[in-house]
């Protein structure tokens, strides 16, 4: 039997003979492992793809609790939308206005609050958060707002900043002073220490004043904010439970900031790094690509800091001259956009003494470059292949020359159209059926070995119906990953690991979605991790990603190839950085019938091996209503240089063996 990876042309012949062999050994699959590594495994192999979709960023990973906190990008002629998430308390008149004296040039809008004549109670505004606010008495909340009186008054008193239940029970409150003589903007900060932990998530943030003292007067507010404690206590940071879930996957890279959300529907609404850095009041926000306004509170600095916090490399995209609505920048007009991309890369990694953008990074407290080695030129440019030829040519030539040590990824279909200069790296995306993934776990075995490397930048089994992949759940589209979809992905991942001499990184997509009342806030399903304002729900696919990521090796050991039309898949790696070495075998079973697989090792191993196992029924899913349906288990098994492993139906296993050297 041939252990070597099949070459480009050898593949069909080899697969035919393997299929024949597997028919012979149907009941008892034997896998012979070669002790000589075929290649080293890149440390970047398993990571995460991120963009703001389904409130993964605003309302998700970003810990800000208030929705529509600064009235960014809202149209004041549509008050219902402009006031999204805001409510009147005791008849206050609320209007989002275009301020005559805006709080900043980036934030033209403000909230005008008029207290009715004859008022005698606490009057003001409430914000419902991102479909609820979790209130916990063990946490301290940082609140802030800007205010001014458009007409000066003699008022000098307090506003109460509070967290309260939907029925008005105060969970925590603090008083701040307001002055009627304050006709220019002033920021007020306060902390709220709740005395009660709410048992529901339907809580509101409120700012109220004494209606009797202020009857008939108007106060303008801008740029509110409310933060719970954040991951690693970073100001303007990440939500702890979501961050910890992502961190527990031990990802080695983070793709940012998109995805389609990089592109904008129009050129004007594209993601622009320089609109996302510096004080929050200087960030205009943007109309995102997934149906809601992005605050850009998680800006480029926050993204890169997050990468550093999780010890991840950033795979950072630059806008490449194409907006999703269909506009490509003309060949002769690309200059300013290329310059903006150069500035963006300098902000991430440039020398502060040579670049203003890098000096800006240093002024924000980070003189050292961030960990960025790969730059993606655009996203899914197979949507505009005709213009990508000149866009790729101009962007990659200019950027490679400005940053000789960085690598650049092309995003159109691989080798089609032919791009000049020839891309050294490609980002490949695939959304398919579970069986497609299993069958195509060999796809990279057939790729030519010629120095070109690949990033499987987005993949997920999204439907069981090959004829209607992007349809509705009735057509087979999945709402949540299932054991069937997750094992299909796992089979594919064994192929990525086998081909990690040319595949340097891979990430499931999308990463996160806000789940509220039957996924009304999801722009896309399924997702790796779902959450609501108080909980996080890792899917079966999350546990597959985690199992691969936690069980890496630094070199790949060739073994008998799986049957190309089979239902069991495996990959064998070795961790040589520990003595004795660890040998890690991943085994995937994509059907409901258990399978025995005999492994023959060419070296001695200790008798006890640990197994991390994920298994469940075909349609089992972890959902917000049944979050713990499937969870990883650990146990030990007895092994030897020849041993048989019984892979349960619909399972993914990582067997860790201890070598003798
Ligand atoms: C193991 O792999 C090495 C390197 O590819 C190859 O030279 C050797 O023949 C293989 N051993 C067996 C038993 O096939
Ligand atoms: C609290 O939020 C709910 C929605 O969750 C909303 O209906 C209600 O009006 C809000 N109340 C206040 C005072 O903001
Ligand atoms: C806020 O001030 C009001 C009026 O003086 C007072 O009744 C209330 O107890 C104060 N609340 C807090 C949290 O200090
Ligand atoms: C309050 O009453 C005054 C005097 O009648 C009137 O000018 C003003 O418009 C009223 N304001 C509100 C908010 O109703
Ligand atoms: C909240 O405020 C405290 C005190 O100013 C500060 O140490 C902490 O970093 C802040 N937290 C966030 C998330 O901004
Ligand atoms: C960001 O840069 C673009 C051009 O590179 C410029 O048009 C825009 O005004 C800048 N935005 C800010 C907030 O400076
Ligand atoms: C590598 O192989 C691919 C596929 O055959 C081809 O399109 C590409 O041009 C090759 N790259 C180099 C650098 O030869
Ligand atoms: C090898 O194992 C050590 C000890 O568990 C771990 O720190 C290291 O990350 C592993 N190497 C790889 C490539 O996973
Ligand atoms: C796997 O092996 C076990 C014990 O060695 C045996 O009981 C079982 O029937 C075998 N299963 C299959 C599917 O061959």
Automatic annotation (TrEMBL):
Offer one example of a GO biological process linked to this entry. Answer: L-arabinose metabolic process
EC number(s) stated in the UniProt entry for this protein = 3.2.1.55
Alpha-L-arabinofuranosidase C-terminal domain ranges (all copies): 479-651
Record-linked Gene3D superfamilies: Glycosidases (3.20.20.80), Golgi alpha-mannosidase II (2.60.40.1180)
User: Could you tell me which InterPro entries the record lists for this protein?
Assistant: Alpha-L-AF_C, ASD1_cat, GH, Glyco_hydro_b, Glycosyl_Hydrolase_51
Q: What GO molecular function terms would the record report?
A: alpha-L-arabinofuranosidase activity
Provide this UniProt record's keywords sorted from A to Z: Glycoprotein, Hydrolase, Signal
What's the superkingdom here? Eukaryota
Recorded catalytic reaction(s): these are:
Hydrolysis of terminal non-reducing alpha-L-arabinofuranoside residues in alpha-L-arabinosides
Give, as one word, the top-level EC class.
hydrolase
- As given in the record, the signal peptide range reads 1-27
State the family it belongs to: Belongs to the glycosyl hydrolase 51 family.
Name of this chain's protein: non-reducing end alpha-L-arabinofuranosidase
Whose protein is this, by species? Lentinula aciculospora
């Amino acid at each position: 039997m041939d252990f070597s990876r099949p070459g480009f042309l050898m593949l069909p012949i080899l697969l035919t003979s393997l299929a024949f062999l597997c028919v012979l050994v149907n009941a008892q699959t034997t896998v012979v492992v070669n002790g000589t590594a075929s290649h080293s495994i890149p440390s970047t192999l398993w990571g995460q793809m991120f963009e703001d979709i389904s409130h993964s960023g605003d309302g998700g990973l970003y810990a800000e609790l208030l929705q529509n906190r600064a009235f960014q990008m809202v149209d004041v002629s549509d008050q219902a939308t402009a006031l999204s998430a805001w409510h009147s308390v005791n008849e206050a008149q609320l209007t989002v206005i275009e301020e005559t004296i805006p709080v900043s040039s980036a934030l033209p809008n403000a909230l005008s609050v008029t207290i009715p004549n004859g008022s005698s109670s606490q009057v003001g505004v409430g914000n419902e958060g991102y479909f609820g606010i979790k209130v916990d008495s063990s946490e301290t909340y940082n609140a802030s707002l800007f205010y001014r009186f458009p007409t000066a008054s003699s008022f000098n008193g307090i506003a109460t900043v509070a967290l309260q239940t939907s029925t008005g029970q105060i969970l925590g409150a603090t008083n701040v002073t307001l002055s009627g003589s304050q006709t220019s903007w002033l920021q007020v900060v306060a902390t709220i220490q709740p005395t009660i932990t709410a048992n529901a998530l339907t809580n509101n943030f409120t700012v109220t004043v004494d209606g009797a003292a202020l009857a008939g007067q108007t106060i303008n507010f801008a740029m509110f904010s409310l933060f719970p404690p954040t991951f690693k206590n970073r100001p303007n940071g990440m939500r702890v439970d979501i961050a910890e879930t992502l961190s527990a996957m031990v990802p080695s890279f983070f793709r940012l900031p998109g995805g389609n959300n990089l592109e904008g529907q129009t050129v004007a609404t594209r993601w622009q790094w320089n609109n996302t850095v510096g004080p929050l009041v200087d960030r205009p926000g943007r109309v995102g690509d997934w149906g809601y306004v992005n605050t850009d509170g998680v800006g480029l600095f926050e993204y890169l800091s997050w990468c550093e916090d999780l010890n991840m490399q950033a795979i950072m995209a630059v806008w490449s001259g194409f907006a999703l609505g269909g506009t490509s920048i003309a060949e002769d007009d690309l200059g300013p956009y290329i310059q903006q991309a150069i500035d963006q890369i300098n902000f991430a990694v440039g020398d502060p003494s040579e670049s203003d953008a890098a000096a800006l990074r240093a002024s924000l407290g980070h003189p050292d470059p961030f960990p960025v080695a790969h730059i993606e030129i655009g996203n899914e440019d197979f949507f505009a292949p005709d213009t990508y030829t000149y866009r790729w040519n101009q962007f990659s030539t200019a950027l490679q020359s400005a940053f000789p040590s960085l690598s650049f990824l092309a995003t159109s279909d691989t080798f089609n159209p032919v791009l000049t200069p020839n891309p050294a790296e490609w980002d490949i995306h695939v959304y398919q059926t579970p069986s497609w993934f299993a069958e195509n776990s060999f796809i990279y075995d057939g790729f030519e070995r010629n120095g070109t490397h690949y990033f499987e930048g987005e993949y997920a089994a999204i439907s069981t119906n090959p004829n209607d992949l992007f349809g509705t759940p009735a057509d087979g589209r999945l709402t949540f990953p299932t054991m069937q979809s997750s094992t299909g992905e796992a089979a594919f991942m064994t192929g990525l690991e086998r081909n990690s001499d040319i595949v340097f990184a891979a990430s499931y997509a999308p990463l996160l979605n806000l789940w509220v009342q039957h996924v009304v806030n999801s722009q896309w399903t399924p997702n790796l991790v779902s959450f609501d304002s108080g909980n996080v729900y890792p899917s079966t696919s999350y546990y597959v990603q985690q199992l691969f990521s936690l069980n890496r090796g630094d070199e790949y050991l060739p073994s008998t190839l799986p049957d190309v039309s089979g239902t069991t898949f495996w990959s064998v790696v070795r961790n040589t950085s520990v003595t004795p070495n660890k040998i890690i075998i991943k085994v995937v079973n994509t059907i409901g019938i258990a399978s025995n697989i005999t492994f023959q090792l060419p070296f001695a191993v200790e008798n006890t091996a640990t197994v991390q196992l994920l298994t469940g029924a075909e349609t089992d899913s972890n959902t917000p209503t049944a979050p713990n349906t499937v969870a990883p288990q650990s146990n030990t098994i007895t092994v030897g240089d020849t041993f048989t492993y019984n892979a349960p139906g619909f399972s993914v296993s990582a067997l860790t063996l201890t070598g003798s050297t």
